[in-house]
Design goal:
By secondary structure, this protein is an alpha+beta fold. It contains 6 helices and 13 strands. β7 and β8 form a beta hairpin.
Length: about 260
């Protein structure tokens, strides 16, 4: 997977659907239900079994997007549903991108907890650091046990089938989008199983700071998700992802009281 340095695209997102092309790894973790509940909205019901929910992360490199090439790391806290609805959606605990415009788009259009980060790669290890000018805080080292190789698309025909799927998610309840939103990513790609990546981070270094800083508390929860037990991973290549605008599911209770 190609890793880009922090950039700022001057392009505009344009009209939906927004199309992203590149490659990605989707890794699934068993996340303790108590950790996931600490970050999901109160109206959600967590989908859990024996005290665990299904979370993990989505690590992508887009070589084409409305914002130009960039990298993205989405930490998924777990699977939730919003009663009385029966369908389940993922909830993102954190989103890191190395493109300012992509960060702004995620915040204002989708109500995602997007942050700017720097991505670097050495010896099959991807290092992710949050950029909070003038400081940079190291977050994760993600090491792929089986290297992700650049391949001719024809070779992927023998290594993984072409699939189409939808990844439904909830978002919102943020400063920029206080409403509860839902959206889905329509994905077409070649997919194959791969060895789960090893994730290391500096959770112990920020524990002492979380009591007085809400942003750090969310970072700690996201890190707990990333450091939870991996169970399997999927490698996506020849990836094409189409994203439609989100739909409002419900209003913020504070907004309703003001009307």
């Amino acid at each position: 997977m190609k890793i880009m340095q922090t950039t700022c695209s001057s392009g505009f997102a344009g009209k939906p659907p927004w199309v992203f092309k590149g490659s990605a790894v989707y890794q699934f973790h068993l996340v303790k239900a108590d950790i996931a509940r600490a970050i999901i909205p109160k109206e959600f019901r967590l989908v859990e079994t024996f005290g665990y929910t299904l979370g993990g992360f989505f690590l992508a490199n887009y070589n084409e997007s409305p914002f130009g090439p960039f990298d993205e790391l989405v930490t998924i806290a777990g699977i939730v549903r919003n009663p009385p609805m029966l369908t389940s959606h993922a909830w993102a605990a954190s989103v890191y991108v190395n493109n300012d415009n992509a960060c702004t788009h995620g915040r204002k259009e989708f109500g995602l907890p997007s942050q700017v980060a720097a991505f670097s790669k050495a010896n099959q290890t991807i290092h992710v650091a949050e950029v909070d000018s003038p400081m940079t805080t190291g977050l994760y080292d993600i090491r792929h046990e089986s290297p992700i190789l650049k391949m001719n698309p024809l070779k992927w025909m023998a290594l993984g089938p072409t699939i189409k799927m939808s990844l439904p998610s909830y978002s919102g309840r943020t400063e920029h989008r206080p409403q509860l939103l839902k959206y889905s990513c329509q994905i077409e790609c070649r997919v194959k199983p791969t060895s789960p990546a090893r994730v290391s981070g500096s959770l112990g270094q920020i524990n002492a700071e979380t009591e007085s800083n809400g942003h750090l508390k969310k970072r700690e929860i996201s890190m707990s998700v990333m450091l939870s037990k991996p169970i399997f991973a999927l490698e996506f290549n020849c990836l094409k992802m189409e994203v439609q605008p989100p739909v409002v599911v419900s209003r913020n209770p504070l907004e309703l009281k003001q009307e």
